[in-house]
Amino acid sequence: xxxxxxxxxxxxxxLSSRLFVGTGKYSSDSLISEVLKRSGAQVITVALRRMDFxxxxxxxxxxxxxxxxxxxxxxxxxxxxxxxxxxxxxxxxGCGNWIKIEVIxxxxxxxxxxxxTVKATEILAREGFVALPYISPDLMVAKRLVEAxxxxxxxxGAPIGTNRGLKTRELLRILIDEIPLPVIVDAGIGRxxxxxxxxxxxxxxxxxxxxxxxxxxxxLMAEAFGKAVSAGRQAxxxxxxxxxxxxxxxSPLTGFLHE
Amino acid sequence: xxxxxxxxxxxxxxLSSRLFVGTGKYSSDSLISEVLKRSGAQVITVALRRMDFxxxxxxxxxxxxxxxxxxxxxxxxxxxxxxxxxxxxxxxxGCGNWIKIEVIxxxxxxxxxxxxTVKATEILAREGFVALPYISPDLMVAKRLVEAxxxxxxxxGAPIGTNRGLKTRELLRILIDEIPLPVIVDAGIGRxxxxxxxxxxxxxxxxxxxxxxxxxxxxLMAEAFGKAVSAGRQAxxxxxxxxxxxxxxxSPLTGFLHE
Amino acid sequence: xxxxxxxxxxxxxxLSSRLFVGTGKYSSDSLISEVLKRSGAQVITVALRRMDFxxxxxxxxxxxxxxxxxxxxxxxxxxxxxxxxxxxxxxxxGCGNWIKIEVIxxxxxxxxxxxxTVKATEILAREGFVALPYISPDLMVAKRLVEAxxxxxxxxGAPIGTNRGLKTRELLRILIDEIPLPVIVDAGIGRxxxxxxxxxxxxxxxxxxxxxxxxxxxxLMAEAFGKAVSAGRQAxxxxxxxxxxxxxxxSPLTGFLHE
Amino acid sequence: xxxxxxxxxxxxxxLSSRLFVGTGKYSSDSLISEVLKRSGAQVITVALRRMDFxxxxxxxxxxxxxxxxxxxxxxxxxxxxxxxxxxxxxxxxGCGNWIKIEVIxxxxxxxxxxxxTVKATEILAREGFVALPYISPDLMVAKRLVEAxxxxxxxxGAPIGTNRGLKTRELLRILIDEIPLPVIVDAGIGRxxxxxxxxxxxxxxxxxxxxxxxxxxxxLMAEAFGKAVSAGRQAxxxxxxxxxxxxxxxSPLTGFLHE
Lengths: 259, 259, 259, 259
Fold this sequence. Notes:
Main location (chains A, B, C, D): cytoplasm
Domain Thiazole synthase ThiG (chains A, B, C, D): 10-252
Order of helices and strands of chain A: EEEHEEHEHEHEHEHEHH
Pathway (chains A, B, C, D): Cofactor biosynthesis; thiamine diphosphate biosynthesis
Oligomer: homotetramer
Organism (chains A, B, C, D): Acetonema longum DSM 6540
Function (chains A, B, C, D): Catalyzes the rearrangement of 1-deoxy-D-xylulose 5-phosphate (DXP) to produce the thiazole phosphate moiety of thiamine. Sulfur is provided by the thiocarboxylate moiety of the carrier protein ThiS. In vitro, sulfur can be provided by H(2)S.
Strand order of the largest sheet of chain A: 5-4-3-10-9
């Protein structure tokens, strides 16, 4: 099992890395290319707002190496209509046809609106977008997104930027079991061990932003996440052993001196 | 930060890997060399009982590559005296002067006896052994082991062989804070995410046996653990971001369509 | 603070108990009156299917004492239309105007369908029902239910009948913070400590069925839940102390023998 | 099952309440009698230092109603010898023959010293004290205390005063399984739900101090803890249902409208 025999396919694209990264909160845009390089990530999400279509400098996309898939997001959209407009703008601006659909009207917890997200996904998938909707881990919303033509679903582990880990673990597990699309855990992951756990559970990929961007050394943290995601995926395939109630000796316990 | 600038020093030995592995429960001894190779582990623990000093074949040490530090353990010892005898036998048999001190008289949970472990450590450290005692994560026992001359302490995350993870997390954290020796988490780790978490907390290393040996594909699982331990150590140095109560947007949330 | 000064008001009804119970899975219907009596519960939910409008015997409502509020549920409904039909039937049959709206089309995890639930709530609230919708703990669905005229929201702690506890704790906390209606935790609670925790967090009430019905001694378990819910509510008002990182002595530690 | 048929017997004393309380950190000593009354606690621990043998006023024991068992503690003792001296002083001062043995030399986490605690217990039990040693939840230490003649063992759930809950849950469970003495959880319990959980697991009693004393309304919190401990004990006897992986309908799900 390696990236050749276990690729992640989304839309028409085959990826060997299962780590997606974001571009927000970095103290300097130049860190982004370091993060991509050290993490091995092949998908990067960018808020359209960050892309300056007029200016010559400072455009975050300048720092994205070729070979990395751009995933524009609809951050700022408060309903389906706005998300659709942002997606079309992104495509028109040459950002390609992938879109992370993010519809948020709650300013405190930044929780996504499943209802508006399904509506936007229906429209955008029909228009040929590779639609990756950001959702709460709700099975019925995820089922509607399958019908709507989503390419993957991106449930949250905890509210955006909280670094709290897989607080929705039980619901994520159900989505992974039941949804015939890649389940990409997005939001809430604060540590490599959290990402590793998501992958062990069978998540298809993880999207990381705050935990890397807010680390004292983002490049080193990016490398750590790259390894942790890969480790979790390998463990998923290697077949985790069951948990035991009682201890089971690894070494022969008796008989050495007692024969 | 890499293994050159962040080595683990135990006794006189400098290690670049922070994963230790065991030799128990493997369906075939030949798997052990694969596990060492794929995990990058440089320390391997062996029960003296497993070493056949007379027979020509089947000796587990045949499968241990040169360059890997042998860590014989006193598995089977039920008190300090027995542990001391086993340690001396191991040294006399050419197994070197490292010893994992394991004193267990509880047959159900296989929990170590701190009192006898301290006694054995005092004796063996005085005789020049590099003593690595296996303990419950008890601060006062660990302090006595520092005084007794231990080279590291090896607290359990959960009972041996249970794969339950860091169930003693709060007590491990205290040991890591307070004990001026490497803290090596030994027992209970069942998944790469568990090992990664221990390293993020500041553990110096992890010892793995059951979780690798009982995987459907031990070689692949060994590779996963190697990465997870390294990822956790890097995250420790990279500076984990704090947990937040409320969400914090990664992307600019407002203003795109609302200017 | 007691039930006189801290009543739970739902619709026009004032309740002194914050424990709701179900009627499913009991080995004998006669247990139900014992459960009501020993737990002090004042609200009981019944699937309409359980109510035999023709037969003279075995009707579960025979066992419900006067003074207990009946909460018929729409169990069996797979969409809004079916839920509305069941609710109207219940009212016509003399079950009153309270209705627990349960719309489930997922047969494995029995997770509710937020979209259909909102639709049914809009219709039934307009018709004068006291509507208590059962939901996943999704903030945006809960906000829509407020607008739709719900009298309370009933988010799940874990899938129905699993006894797993507050696995959706983080999301429940957000609902309790943000929703200006009673939040009644329904499903997943397996132990009195789980119900107590929900109440400490500020839940308005808990609905229990499986954990009581499947206990070896349901009457005793009902009594335990009654106390635990009351304890949790009192703790909520008494003001829980903060968690501390380090120990803080309760007793004077120094000076006794060291003056 | 009630307090008549399920008493807690320690030494020669039969208790109907399974809540023990402390006397530290109260803003006013007069609160203590309110706490005893509202919680129903029948055992109260007092640091000898708090007892003023000379002064006429302000002695905490003045506030302890008759019928409540006094449990002096050896708080301030840093080794076995000091604990023994304090215990003897307490007895000589008329405090009776119960003693909570607390030996702590760690000033940051206030973790007990198992080795010195065993020594003190041996001496004091031999002198006829009803010895209740405070310990880390270490099985081997607990086994030695059984041999030393302890009347109960008092393992910590988390460091004193932290309100963190049952962070040592796995180790407590082992003690409850293996030790043929009452296991009284002491330290770390911060909420009624924590105490309830300890009792559900089979703990014989809980000792609470900080969580009550530091509540905004200690009397109300005391009442909450009294109920929660009783609820947990009842649940233990009522037979907790098992946890399920998948949902299990409480109400009949199909057939209502689909026959």
